[in-house]
Amino acid sequence: MSTSFTSMTVSELQAALADGATSADVTRTYLDRIEAEDGVLGAYLHVDPEAALERAAAVDASGKAGTGLAGIPVALKDVVVTEGIPTTSGSRILEGWKPPYDATVAARLAAAGTVLLGKTNMDEFAMGSSTENSAYGVTRNPWNPERIPGGSSGGSSAAVAGGLAPWAIGTDTGGSIRQPAALTGLVGHKPTYGSVSRYGLIAFSSSLDQAGPMARTVLDAALLHEAIGGHDPLDSTSIDVPVPVLAECARRGAEGDLSGLKVGVVRELGGQGHTDGYEQGVLDRFTEAVALLESMGAEVREVSCPAFDLALPAYYLIAPSEASSNLSRFDGVRYGLRVGDDGNHDLDEVMALTREQGFGAEVKRRIILGTYALSSGYYEAYYGQAQKVRTLISRDFSAAYADVDVLVSPTTPTVAFPLGSRVDDPVAMYAADLCTLPASLAGVPAISVPCGLSDGLPVGFQVMAPALADERCYQVAAALEAAQDAARGSRFLDQLPRRDAEPVGGAA
Amino acid sequence: MSTPSQGQLSRDEVAHLARLARLAVTDEELVLFAGQLAAVLDAVAQVGKAGVEDVPPTTHAVPMTNVMREDVVRPSLPRETVLAGAPAAEDDRFRVPRILQEEA
Amino acid sequence: MSTDTLVDYDQVLTRYEPVIGLETHVELGTASKMFCGCSTTFGAEPNTQTCPVCLGLPGSLPVANAMAIESTIRIGLALGCRIATWSRFARKNYFYPDIPKGFQTTQYDEPLCTAGHLDVEVDGETYRVEIERVHLEEDTGKNLHVGGATGRIHGADHSLIDYNRAGIPLVEIVTRPIPGAGAKAPEVAKAYVTELREILLALGVSEVRMEQGNLRCDVNTSLAPIGSLEWGTRTETKNVNSLRSVERAVRFEMRRQAALLDEGTRILQETRHFHEDTGTTSPGRSKEEATDYRYFPEPDLVPVAPDEEWVAKLAAMLPELPAARRSRLSDEWGITPTEMAWLVNAGAVELVSDTVAAGASPSDARKWWLGELARRANDAGTDLSDLAVTPAQVAELIGLISAGTINDQLARQALDGVLAGEGGPAAVVEARGLAVMGDSDELVAAVDAAIEANPDVAEKVRGGKVQAIGALVGAVMKTTRGKADAATVKRMLEERLTAS
Question: Distance (Å) from the C-alpha of residue C309 to the closest C-alpha of chain B?
């Protein structure tokens, strides 16, 4: 029985725990698999088996395992600050840092009785779409270890898809939950900006960052979202509304009745005249999924959002600008790395040497770009202009939502690309975020749900909803998931072999 | 508003920006970054094409105002904890090498 | 130190017209910091009042202190400012070890208050100081420089940082340039800061203790040839931290700049430092390249949008402001503006007012606070308000004098007791036995003893040399150690020596 824990959904794990399995058993199974598989996948940066087992035993002793999320293991992207547990955000500059506090997301999951398996790998400071920018090595895609797992939450996506965690927290600034979820066959949701606390998430771009769930099913994602969502007085941008009821919407969606639902297909995201850079296999799976929605009663129409064409340039000005400022605190004074403090360098030099050696190339590129975009004389033309484009994108969403309930698109233009294929070409790398950026810039919720395979690799289907209408994402995604599972006769991830047995892949 | 000139980031400019950002970049990086950033700037400069007359900037996706906390004291961290992560400390303070620049 | 050539102050004014401007930073007296719940108590052990937010730890986020925002709006209202309906915090990006985030959270182009003014009086003349803006920001930590001479940054081996002060709410009040003060420019600068301090005290928004750095001034000074249409290049003298220094800094810069201009040297637009010990300024180290602060709206905080109702509520709660109060009290107390100015300079307005409220006459209250009590404070090297005597006790003392229970001399002894913590004036008078002797048996005995001990003097008086009685009065006062009332003694002596 224990071997199957790693291919169960969380709903199934809950049932197993309620039925007498112990959290310690479940946790040990995952730890064993991490031990066996993570040498290849590279999903985790930090695992403390003893602490995890101790925690699981405590939950078992409390008698609460199986109620709510108690006793369920979870993995956190290493951008989430955890008290006393190393937190690096994938950067050398934070190597060895043990935070003295917990992120709200971490605290809420702990309070819910979950068991922390470990911290997952990520592109340094969440800057990247492939998890190749981590200072601590690459993470591989469980579907094909020569391919990237997406990014920046690639450690979380690889862990959940590869059976090294039942679910995980990711963060999404321009697509960093949805894109890796899509490329590894998971469900990943970026909540409405402000609906999940950012307190304790190491900031990349403050006006865009959101934490969210990455899971094997839509229902699991909804359960995890409910556990972390809701107002937090420690985050000024946190919206003071009740925690949304999402799992219920997911269950209702799975019943497959979408009659009355108006679905808008965004022309600018892979539609006619906008197919440059999109793989045919991705477009085919997307079209099939749209047809499936229609077959369930949804009313589908094409919608045009012209400003979406400018989402990529706007994003690559706003995010680096905010990042250049957010990353200024890494100066080697209060925590983390310090380089050159040998009596021969003054403080300015030590700061510059520390940052030079502590940050990787992509981080440095973006800091320089952001510094440029904010500098006097360029601010209006770059940062100011990008913030106005953001308004245009929001207006396009508003106009579209006047006619439709949700907008849909492929999550990514391509399936997972080979490791190393884009690292030297930032512009090509940035194109991986093409479809996810508009929702990020407008702060609206968006989910990615698997919609089939292309060349044996997962394709993601994106559902976007108006701000604070996250439940629509879950409802539509659940309907699509249920219909596809029914047609396939199995869950999507069951197509990924050896999830509870031998090591994946053979590559070094 | 004028569209910024495209792809014009020179090595000197990159060097200046790196100094502003306290990055002791190497010469190889200067060359590499100048080239890569020129390509990125080409791409991002497209924002200049948008007609944004009378369009207000969006700084917060979900508009809110007046989020405040009451003026109430909460416990601080213990000093050992505060200094535990410090690269260097002395006399209960964070220690840094000599400072040449005066404060801004 | 400085080897600047200086022009005599009077000479400066014959050729140049000064323009001054002030940027004043005020630490608000909130209980907690601007963006976190850490205490703001002064003098705590280093790095004991810090948390993830004010240390700028990765992941931490700010939440604005409502009291700090209201205090800023109240300052703006007291200065006649327009209160913004939409205001934002911005990030000022630069690297310095005392700012934990690599940027200071401040306000840039959307401050809370703009376009106010403050009228100040110097030698009976009123000068209007225009206020450009009042905005809210956070204070920095404190650097301690080790290994160099006198703890200065120059020559130090390394520095130590304490972040207790980092994040304390700081209000910056910026004047527009102040032309037209001429020779009075240094005094106008001082009068402005003095008046601003009074307002801040009246509002109760800050303790305004300059010695604790609650109030810090940057003073801009420029000179232009008389008759010139353009203003000169200004220098900015940083961290001028006492009222007296504000005046001295302006005066010194005027004299220094005049000497340079006289010899045809251009004034550098630069930051300078004021030295309390010598009263001079010296240039800050110039930076290798211009700083570019890359301001942008702080995305971690939402805009502050004070609506009319909120502002009206705060306006209604404003106390009577110092100028209006002084004018009203001058009328009530029947004193001239100059006499009021003495009280202001002595920091005695509130004390006198409270003493009057406790029942003393305005003239007695003024006499005691500006006289005996001012002397005591001066001897003790403290402020009047720090003396261990309350206005109510001073009023009680004055009441005892008026009632004839004690005289001025005894009152000073009673005050000794009060300051020594022996209790209130009446209690001290009782305990020390300081009451004036009435027509008592003890006094009768003392008078008789004096006559007996000085028969020749007594005889002179009896013989009509009335003025000789003074010696007898003196003898009685001596034996009673000042407790007798001299007039009473004289009357008793007269009764005895002229009746027989």
Answer: 14
Question: In a mutagenesis test of the B interface, which of A240, A337, A368 is the best target, namely the one with the most B β-carbons within 10 Å?
Answer: A368
Do the beta carbons of residue C204 and residue C74 sit within 8 Å? no
Domain range for C386 is 320-432
Nearest to B25 among A343, A364, A384 (CB): A364
Q: How many CA atoms lie within 13 A of B54 on its CB side?
A: 0
Burial (CB count <10 Å: 0-12, 13-18, 19+), residue C440: exposed
Closest-CA residue of C relative to B83 is C47
Averaged pLDDT for residues B100-104: 67
Q: What is this model's ipTM?
A: 0.95
Query: Which pLDDT score, from 0 to 100, does residue C481 have?
Result: 76
* Alpha-carbon distance A127 to nearest alpha carbon in chain B (angstroms): 15
Q: Are C162 and C141 in contact (CB under 8 A)?
A: yes
Q: Closest to C61 (Cβ–Cβ): which among A99, A236, A331?
A: A236
Is the pLDDT at A1 greater than 50, yes or no?
no
| Nearest CB to B87 within list A194, A341, A467 | A341
A to C CB pairs, distance under 8 Å: 101
Residue A439 lies in a domain: yes
Q: Are residues C239 and C335 in the same domain?
A: no
Facing residue for B40 by CB, picked from A307, A316, A332: A316
Could you list the active site residues of A?
77, 152, 176
E strand residue ranges, C253-345? 271-275, 280-283, 296-297
In a domain, A443, yes or no: yes
**Does pLDDT of C111 surpass 90?**
yes
What's the structural domain count of chain A?
1
Domain interval for residue A280: 2-308+392-495
CA distance A377 to chain B (A): 10
Average pLDDT over residues C317-344: 88
Return the CATH number at B30: 1.10.20
User: Within a domain: residue A353?
Assistant: no
In Å, how far is C204's CA from the nearest CA of chain A? 27
B75 lies in a domain?
no
For residues C291 and C327, membership in a common domain is answered with no
Task: Determine, yes or no, domain membership for C1.
Answer: no
Q: Using 50, 70 and 90 to split pLDDT, how confident is the model at C338?
A: confident
Distance in angstroms (rounded) separating the CA atoms of residues C226 and C72: 38
Residues C98-110, mean pLDDT to the nearest whole number: 96
| Domain total in chain B | 1
The pLDDT of residue A171: 98
Asked if the Cβ–Cβ distance from C95 to A371 is below 8 Å, we say: no
Mean pLDDT over B65-88 rounds to: 96
Interface B:C, Cβ pairs < 8 A: 133
pLDDT at C288: 52
Burial A182-213 (b: 16+ CB within 10 A, else e): bbbbbbbbbbbbbbbbbbbbbbbbbbbbbbbb
The answer to whether B94 contacts A236, with C-beta atoms less than 8 Å apart, is no
Q: Domain containing C486 — which CATH number?
A: 1.10.10
* Chain B hits for A333, Cβ within 8 Å: 86-87, 94, 96
Q: Does B97 fall in a domain?
A: no
Q: CA quadruple A50, A56, A59, A63: dihedral positive or negative?
A: negative
SS3 label, residue A476: helix
Instruction: Verify that C417 and C464 share a domain, yes or no.
Output: no
Put simply, the answer to whether A236 touches C103 (Cβ < 8 Å) is no
What residue in B sits closest to C41 (Cα-Cα)? B73
In a domain, A251, yes or no: yes
Each residue's pLDDT tens digit, A71-83: 999 999 999 999 9
Torsions phi, psi of C26, nearest 5? -120, 120
Per-residue pLDDT of C419-446, as tens digits, reads 888 888 888 888 887 777 666 777 888 8
**Quick one: C80 and C195 in the same domain?**
yes
Number of domains in chain C: 3
Are C383 and C362 contained in the same domain?
yes
